[in-house]
Amino acid sequence: MASTPSSLSAVQLRAYFALTEVAGLLKHAVEQQLRDVGDLSWVQFQLLARLGLDSATGSERMTDLADGVVYSRSGLTYQAGLLEKAGLVTRAPSADDDRGVTVSITGAGRDRLATVMPGHVEVIRRQLFEPLSAKDTDALADLLVPVRDHMRAAPPRSATPRRRRES
Amino acid sequence: MASTPSSLSAVQLRAYFALTEVAGLLKHAVEQQLRDVGDLSWVQFQLLARLGLDSATGSERMTDLADGVVYSRSGLTYQAGLLEKAGLVTRAPSADDDRGVTVSITGAGRDRLATVMPGHVEVIRRQLFEPLSAKDTDALADLLVPVRDHMRAAPPRSATPRRRRES
DNA sequence: TATTGTTATACTCTATAACTATA
DNA sequence: TATAGTTATAGAGTATAACAATA
After folding, report:
1. CB–CB of A144 and B18 under 8 A?
2. For residues B63 and B66, what is the distance between their CA atoms, to the nearest angstrom?
3. Which residue of A has its CA nearest to B122?
4. Length B103 CA → C1 C1' (Å)
5. Which domain holds residue B66?
6. Residues of A in contact with B7 (CB under 8 A)
């Protein structure tokens, strides 16, 4: 209930800075590996991984992808175009909704993912998990998963421009 | 001792994805606030914060800044140039080493930081810390600080191009 | 010879706004 | 009228390589 203080506690600052630094360094290391081994950017990898690993069908609609990866629509169109040109995904009109576009990972896309994964995993393990015990890893996941869900719930949604309640 | 497996455990994946998503969403939200309120990019804010909050003197050398923020030299030169043009920092030859350049935050720089901080803190609190208890926050910091130190220790240093051991 | 920092350059990424087509 | 996606465009950020100056 107490009114929110206007600065963070020392512990909060430690946690915040550590989080951003870890994420930044990790992203940097991963990007280098992805670029070297698979000629993929971080975002492109995320899109492929979502299609090839998370999705059961290997397909998703543009809007869902944009939401998932935190992206503007046009940005996603751009990246999807690159991936399509590289033969890693295809785009086709959605079956149910003629406005929609369904993106699907191709065989070549899965191959590329397979090419990249071992080194990717290796980087993550060395950089992120080496200093963490199994118990630590568990704890970390249990802390961060609720935070992610909380962030996703209160949506600074990236895609759609808000516009409502003009009186 | 066991040879490293070629994929991550389910828990590791959960932790890894949650970490990157949280960091990504957080950065996104913060960037918007910084841009709206203080006309600062994420990196520019990090540089100012490092000078104004972390450093006792308000000054640091270019190389140290580049290392701290994970940055190429030329990228830092570019950003430092922007900050200088905006009057938020100054650059002067280092006292001890004539090759070096010392960057110092100005009064205007500290003002800008002060302008931006309340909203910044608010975003962090709402997005990141709202779902975390004090104990959770403690635990998170204790988990991530060692990881950060580990990453910094095994340096995929960004700045200097490696070149050594050519036989 | 190695290091510090800048410059020139080229490229990638991202967002905004305008537009088309379908619901 | 609202939503899905694309296009055009313009700007910011980043890295690489070549360079000058100092250690």
Report:
1. yes
2. 5
3. A6
4. 28
5. 17-132
6. 117, 121
Q: Check which CATH number belongs to the domain holding B31 and give it.
A: 1.10.10.10
CB B52 within 8 A of CB B108: no
Is B161 an 8 Å CB contact of chain A?
no
Give the pLDDT mean for B76-89: 97
Residue A164 resides in a domain: no
Cα–Cα distances (Å) from B62 to A17, A55, B73, in that order, read 20, 45, 8
3-state secondary structure of A102: strand
pTM (two decimals): 0.88
Closest to B11 (Cβ–Cβ): which among A7, A118, A138?
A138
- Render pLDDT for B50-63 as a digit per residue (tens, 0 to 9): 999 989 999 999 99
- Measured between CA atoms, how close is A98 to chain B, in angstroms? 31
Q: Quick one: pLDDT band at residue A161, thresholds 50, 70, 90?
A: very low
Number of domains within chain B: 1
